[in-house]
Design a protein that fits this description.
This protein is α/β, with parallel strands linked by helices. It folds into two domains: about 70 residues, no CATH class; about 130 residues. It is built from eight helices and nine strands. α4 runs parallel beside α7. The protein is globular.
Length: about 220
């Protein structure tokens, strides 16, 4: 087992066209005050494009969090490329939900925390690595979350679930300071997931998407 520091997360970027499709940028006033000049300039460019109504940007593309207390991430700016990620971040920054945990990060798609997995594509075995989308800290618990679209049922996702669950079992065997959890969830799970966090009843949370993949 080895430790990974959140400071090791490399900077992310996203194009205006990706924002207009399914992406989004989340930031607060501290993002503007603390970011480097090129990052601040990028935020200002996006704000200007949004105000001008250019490039096909819409209201879901940009969220400035007015209350920084609800933006509980060490990242200055959070960028997402897909709608399930975007909707999950919206849940994380809701005041009633943000009170229920200590902090969170949005992982990069590659190169931060990788989990090996395998699956079969027809008759051919396949191997890969994936970076779970989110890490949420609540007391002595870390929730590792992979988001998918509703009904995104396939053998590859089944492989990710199987190997990630095994990975979590090994993590919890190797140490007893932090208890780790893994869930693959989709937007239809979000409401119940955050309710379980608020109620401190997450031990028995069951993802609808994972249940559907078992059938």
């Amino acid at each position: 087992m080895f430790e990974i520091n959140t400071r090791e997360i490399q900077k992310s970027s996203i194009s205006i066209s990706a924002l207009a499709k399914e992406g989004a940028i989340f930031y607060d006033q501290n993002s503007l005050n603390l970011s480097e000049e090129n990052e601040t300039k990028r935020i200002e460019e996006i704000e200007q494009a949004f105000e001008e109504g250019s490039s096909g940007l819409h209201t879901a593309c940009k969220t400035k969090i007015e209350n920084s207390y609800n933006f509980k991430t060490p990242l200055n700016v959070v960028l997402v490329s897909h709608k399930p990620e975007r909707e999950f971040v919206k849940g994380l920054i809701k005041e009633e939900n943000s009170r229920a945990f200590d902090g969170w990060i949005k992982s990069k798609d590659t190169g931060f925390y990788e989990i090996d997995y395998a699956w079969r594509k027809g008759e051919h075995p396949k191997n890969g690595k994936f970076n779970p989308d989110f890490f949420i800290k609540k007391g002595d618990n870390i929730f590792i979350i992979e988001t998918k679209a509703d009904k995104d049922i396939c053998d590859e996702n089944k492989g990710k679930i199987e190997y990630a669950k095994k990975h979590i079992i090994e993590l919890n065997k190797l140490q007893n300071k932090i208890k780790y959890y893994f869930w693959m969830i989709s937007p239809s799970d979000y409401e119940s997931f955050f309710r379980k966090l608020r109620e401190d009843d997450f031990d028995n949370f069951v993802s609808k998407l994972e249940l559907e993949m078992e059938n």
